[in-house]
Design brief:
alpha/beta; Rossmann fold; 194 residues; 6-stranded mixed β-sheet; binds inosinic acid; globular; binds magnesium ion
């Protein structure tokens, strides 16, 4: 879905774009990939009782687009996990800030996440939900930085593998900003380095 581009008519909004080093994925490229992922998911979950679990906050834009392209009955819930402070490096410790509303025993769960970095967040959540008796737990992330992996984890569905750079937009943030950029971009290091 298209959004508003930073423009000179809004100085504060255009100021955000000054912190962008390069655009990595434009809106059309993202939309095409989201459609492909949704087609794969629609095929793979035929006849199953699908529960999408979005990981807040970064996944909500991707999840909103993805779920509207999945041609199956499905339910959606959210968890909020935190491994990052306001910086760009993982603390390594996962905290559950908001849990699922209901039980998941017997459910087919697809976790939807914005990006896999160290892999700790998704590995933690997969193990947690398997431990609660889910019938299956798989993962779908828009972006993956495999060179940053610190634990043994690979997403089942992945949009794009990207290099080791800190990216923002299409739901991804730095200090809770940039989520509403309609594209994915590399942030200039001087925007976050002290
Ligand atoms: P992991 O547990 O290290 O895999 O971290 C995953 C989480 O870190 C993601 O859900 C994001 O919230 C955050 N993250 C990792 N890399 C980036 C990035 O380049 N931009 C924005 N957030 C990121
Ligand atoms: Mg996240």
């Amino acid at each position: 879905m298209s959004g508003c581009e930073p423009s000179a008519t809004s100085p504060a909004w255009a100021g955000l774009e000054e912190n962008i080093q390069e655009r990595l994925l434009d809106t059309a490229t993202i939309e095409a990939k989201v459609s492909d992922l949704a087609a794969d998911i629609s095929r793979d979950y035929q006849g199953q009782d699908l529960l999408l679990v979005g990981v807040l906050c970064g996944s909500f834009v991707f999840l909103a687009d993805l779920m509207r392209r999945i041609c199956l009955p499905l339910q959606v819930e959210f968890v909020c996990l935190s491994s990052y402070g306001s910086g760009t490096e993982s603390s390594g410790q996962i905290r559950m800030l908001k849990d699922l509303a209901g039980p998941v025993a017997g459910r087919h769960i697809l976790i939807v996440e914005d990006i896999t970095d160290s892999g700790r967040t998704l590995k933690y959540l997969v193990e947690l939900l398997r431990g609660r008796g889910a019938a299956s737990v798989r993962t779908c992330c828009l972006l993956d930085k495999p060179s940053r992996r610190e634990v043994d984890f690979a997403p089942d569905y992945c949009g794009f593998e990207i290099p080791d750079a800190f990216v923002v937009g299409y739901g991804l943030d730095f200090a809770n900003l940039y989520r509403n950029l309609p594209y994915v971009a590399v942030l200039k290091p001087e925007a976050y380095e002290p």
